[in-house]
Amino acid sequence: MAGTTRRHSETGPVGDQVADNVAEIRRRRRMTTKQLAEAVGEMGVPMTASTVTKIETQGRRVFVDELVALAAALDVTPAALMLPGRDPRQPVWMGEPMPWRRAWRWMHGAAPLPSREELYGEDFGGFLSWLSINRPYMTEVEFQREYLGPARPATWQEFMRGAEEEGEEDEGPGS
Q: Which tens digit of pLDDT belongs to each residue from 127-142?
């Protein structure tokens, strides 16, 4: 994918996933394209049923404001529109290929991109700084409790190993 050239109007792998997820979640919610377009329009983002169909069939790219309004209208997070709901058992493309569970962690501000890991090395403080930027909603007390408790890991890799081990049994989002 990195060396692939596409026209500006064409969707890429994330856009393709958005198209698939909008269609799937809309059907799960038992909404018509007209109902979804109206719900998006009520949020101040003009959209027609034809636009929803074009988005779902990859005939049209989605703008950021539309992505947020579509997510709100479908009652999901924007991340739920951009990532596969189930592990495809192959790398997910999020600017770089990565495992499905890691892609979800990155989108939720819980782990840096795999290619950026070397920036932190053994520096748990640098990782905590990254977390504080990507989770600005957390209070200092919440941050202390979640990341600096009595079993504080020595490195961010140790923290990630623990997080990955905790999540190995679940099926993840959408299960």
A: 788 888 999 998 878 8
